[in-house]
Amino acid sequence: MSKTNYLESQFVLWCLGKSNALFPTAIQPWLGLFTGAPSDSLGGTEVSGASYVRLNISSYFIETFSEPGELKNIAPLSWPVIGEAWGSIVAGGIFPTQTSSQLLRYGILPSPLLTQVGKTLTIAAGKLLIREG
Known about the structure:
Blueprint: H1 5-15, E1 30-36, E2 45-46, E3 55-56, E4 61-63, E5 70-73, E6 77-78, E7 88-95, E8 105-114, E9 122-123, E10 129-131
Antiparallel strand pairs: 1-2, 1-3, 1-7, 4-5, 5-10, 6-9, 7-8
């Protein structure tokens, strides 16, 4: 049984902190980064170390309307200056709280993001697409 475009769209909006008719209680979504990719059954290896934090992304996404359930970031996503080696970022994931171990959604990057001590990691506006399906 397949999901409708409507259900896919409403679910993606909820995962990004937008309440709606199907999911009236919004979460506060947090974006985490991974050096070891997660899967549907395994959590992966989240970045750890000096200055790493998950980012609250509840106000950073809008629907693209190019595909049902597709959203993109409308502002840059920037982490603090990297204090110690994070390694290569291979995936990102959405968590329901800043400290939760329950990963809701994840995506594997097309190519790793290389991090550098003393630099800031930023994902430019419009460069992070999240879609259902």
